[in-house]
Amino acid sequence: MPDKTFDAIVIGTGACGGWAAKELTAAGMETLVLDAGPQPEPSRDFTHHAWPYDLKYRGRPPEGRTEPHDHGLPLVWRKHPDHPYSTPPDKPFDWVRSRIVGGRTLHWSRATHRWSDYDFKAASRDGFGDDWPIGYSDIAPYYSQVERHIGVSGYKEGLPQLPDGEFLPGMPYNCAETMLRAAALRLGLPATHRRIAQLSRPLNGRPKCHFCGHCGDGCDVGAMFNSVVSTLPDAAATGKMTLRPNSIVRAVLTGKDGKAQGVSYVDRVTKQDYEARGRIIIVAASSLESTRILLNSAPDGLGNSSGVLGHYLMDQVAGSGVTGYLPQLYDGPPRNDDGKASGMFIPYFTNLDKPKGGKFLRGYCLSGTGGQSEVFGGAQAVPGYGAGFKKEVRRRYPAQARLWLSAGEMLPRYENFVALDPDLQDSWGIPALRITCEHSDNERALYAHAVETMKEVFEAAGGEIVSAGGRISTPGGLIHEVGTCRMGSDPKTSVLDPWCGMHETPNVYVFSGAPFVTSGVHHPTLTMMALTVRGCERIVEKSKRREL
User: Fold this and answer.
1) Three-state DSSP class for 78?
2) Is residue 101 part of a domain?
3) Which residues contact 39 (CB under 8 A, 6 or more apart)?
4) Most exposed of 93, 199, 302, 476 (fewest Cβ within 10 Å)?
5) Do 77 and 150 belong together in one domain?
6) Mean pLDDT for the chain?
7) At which of 474, 500, 525 does a domain end?
8) How far apart are CA 311 and CA 513, in angstroms?
9) 300: which residues sit within 8 A by CB, 6+ positions away?
10) Is residue 427 located within the same domain as residue 527?
11) Rounded-to-integer distance, Cα 318 and Cα 168, Å
């Protein structure tokens, strides 16, 4: 395409890239969409109807590979020799990547929660860090637009810290979830079903979920939202999208006027270099990959006179939870308890009334489920052998249950950052990232509080605890990394404006978790998609006025 200048170039095809492609092509813009990975074939790459014994490694992949997503989808990893990154020896970081058209939407947890002003304006409440330059009222219409299209199953609860959305009928609770939820409510904790982008009834040509329970391995029927079955087909239907897989973007190219003119990229297979021209550049890779591209686009990073590009890296807190048995369910009949792969959910409840009065700032949310699942991991801890062993396994199998830290807020701190490693490159000659990130005392105190809460809920449900707590997660382990290209109203302290456009390079927009000012308490993906739709609306308006 050497002689063509596109109206827009979108880098990435995940949650944000798919929405950007959909919105811009719907507005009539000729859009080139680049993805670093291959185009998946659902019948070949999605293994949601396979049994563990049919999978590579029999469902237990070796160290360094993600579970359970490696089994059918190519190019999903924590560590890969072609795609290196570095960390200080005493500050590990798990950077889980998915280079494939559709990105991490092909195997995400589907948790789809609106944020509130408890998240967007947290600094005004407790004095730490900065408020977002937008509030809930600014983004609420875009939450609704995204929810209506992707389909979110949930229950309306009227909680100010977890605003209700445009919901399909909520998924049913199984027996264990009903018991855990009742226990949480007795303790005065809010509790609902996890809100998930998983269809409880047909929507927009996609069928409802048939409860196979393998959402993390890819959904070849399209009942869970991903860009391959939803936003990218909509973009393709306009005739305005040109999709080029296997295209690893090296940098955004700029002209003498300081505006972006296109991108340089390399073919993943042939390693041949290319350039593409576009009037507007949308950087919508993952948070850290988007920032790597911007850091590699100018000596000090594109649009980085503020010096904050790469800084304020956050990943929400996770860690070991509480597992055990609910004795009331011993010897129960076999059930398909894990088919919907979600569960009971306890939203943000700490420090709401006294944001500065607790042992830590901000808060966390919890998830819980139980019952009979496809694989009974607890069987390995059952004593005995032979017929007696089998009988005891069958007795315990329906009664297993667990609570886990679904997400906890990590505070934004300048000293958590990414930069280009001066010595390390990937297999295509592109500088790799050096990631410096660690938890603070606040995150550790938050995690300890979460463990105690989970123990209280489990015991209130009459449960027998087998294990509780453990170590806090390694940063990056929850795969909710955000920050490093923060938005703000002041160009001296931020890289992006409130619509995710660059202050200094106005025809470049960044859509991902990178613009986030805080990590928030609830899951980030819905907010990423809503910010993308809001930003694309701005792009279309400014394009019509020839301001980009």
Assistant:
1) coil
2) no
3) 101, 243, 245
4) 476
5) no
6) 93
7) 474
8) 13
9) none
10) yes
11) 28
Strands 260-267 and 31-34: unpaired
**Percent of the chain that is helix, strand, coil (3-state, to 5):** 25, 20, 50
Distance, CA of 11 to CA of 115 (rounded, Å): 26
| Gap between the Cα atoms of 375 and 50, Å rounded | 13
Tokens of 543: 């394009």
Both 330 and 453 in one domain: the answer is yes
Look at residue 68 and tell me whether its pLDDT is greater than 60: no
Cβ proximity of 169 and 200 under 8 Å = yes
- H-type alpha helices, 83-230: 117-120, 122-126, 136-150, 175-186
Q: SS3 of 451, please?
A: helix
- Helix axis angle for 15-26 and 525-544, nearest 10°, is 30
Q: Which of 9, 11, 8, 10 is nearest to 289 (CA)?
A: 11
Residue 29 lies in a domain: yes
* Residue position matching structure tokens 């409840």: 349
- Look up the CATH number of the domain holding residue 542: 3.50.50.60
Buried b (16+ CB within 10 A) or exposed e, 13-38: bbbbbbbbbbbbbebebbbbbbbbbb
For residue 527, the number of C-alpha atoms closer than 13 Å in the C-beta half-sphere is 30
Looking at 241-358, which runs of residues are DSSP E strands?
Answer: 241-244, 247-254, 260-267, 273-283, 322-325, 344-346
Q: Sort strands 344-346 and 192-193 into parallel, antiparallel or unpaired.
A: antiparallel
Q: Are residues 310 and 396 both part of a single domain?
A: no
pLDDT for the residue numbered 1: 55
* Tokens 């998946």 belong to residue: 40
Query: Both 425 and 519 in a single domain?
Result: yes
451/462 same-domain check: yes
Give residue 168's domain range.
109-197+317-408+439-474
Tell me the C-alpha distance between 95 and 458, whole Å: 32
pLDDT tens-digit readout, 73-84: 555 677 889 999
Q: Across-strand partners of 98?
A: 76
**In the predicted structure, residue 509 carries a pLDDT above the cut 60:** yes
Q: How many domains is the chain partitioned into structurally?
A: 2
**Tens of pLDDT, residues 244-271:** 999 999 999 999 999 999 999 999 999 9
Residue 341 lies in a domain: yes
Domain shared by 296 and 354, yes or no: no
Task: Name the residue with tokens 């076999």.
Answer: 334
Q: Which helix (H) or strand (E) holds 400?
A: strand 400-408
Asked if 330 and 374 sit in the same domain, the reply is: yes
Provide the Cα torsion 232, 233, 237, 238; round to 10°: -20
Closest CA to 163 of 342, 348, 405: 348
- When pLDDT is averaged across residues 516-521 and rounded to a whole number, the result is 98
488, part of any domain: yes
Q: In whole angstroms, how far apart are CA 11 and each of 238, 262, 294, 353, 518? A: 19, 11, 12, 42, 24
